[in-house]
Amino acid sequence: MNRKSYPFFIYSGLLNSEHYDKIGSALWLFLWLISSTTKEHVKDGVKWGLVLGHKPIKAREMADIFAVSEKTVRRWLESLEQHEYIKTVRAPYGLIMSVKHSKRFSQKGTLTRPEATDRTISADHRDKNVRREIDITKNHTAEEAINDIAAHFIRLRSAQEGRSVYPSPRDYQAIARIVSLGASAQEAIKWLGECFTAFEQRRTSSAETIKAFSYCAKFMEDRLNARIAGRTITTKKERNTIHDKTNDRADTGRPEKRKTSITGGQTGRIRRKPL
């Protein structure tokens, strides 16, 4: 599996013969569209996921991801839209796409099974529910983090290029991966600034610019790894300190036992007692 992959939600109801027959080989594109959802909104009671925040995407860009032809991608899109899995709108610079009944980001508590309220919940089940709610909240706030980081990245890129630029699908994927590794929006935005500053100091021509978020992703991973390593060292030091203090208490709490000498404490040559 690709080292840069990250988890996301989908409905288990898709796993049946009906959807298998309808989606067919377009499944991989459909999953990619769900994973690329960065915002959600409800219209006429239906939740729609906005793919890349409704940034126009060219068929060629999607074809490159799966190493297929544009014709294949268009056939997949036509099939998905025909069966009402997605909705597309043509724009001057590509397609604006939405995913129906998106579950890319789940609200707190939506994964709790209804039948759980009809029986006594054990302590183990309660712990699992708490962990589940924490994870769901984390995924929900990741939406805002991804959008904030993408917006800041584009501001920096636009300033560097001297024109308006927009994030690509690969940019969003790289941002989502950084967030999934544990970087907060505040950390990522700070590191973006440091990355662009370091780049400006090294570049020799105005034509040299940062073209993709993946350039800064490596910069951020190094800092994430350093942070994790720092925490590990601190934890080890704290453990050693606690261990040393425990040993000190053990040493001072027990007086040293005197050893009995077979010579009675005498040193040197010992005369033999007369019989």
UniProtKB/TrEMBL annotation:
SUPFAM superfamilies: Winged helix' DNA-binding domain
UniProt-recorded name of the protein: Phage portal protein
Segments for region (Disordered): 235-275
InterPro entries: WH_DNA-bd_sf (IPR036390)
Bias (Basic and acidic residues): 235-259
Biological source species: Bacillus siamensis
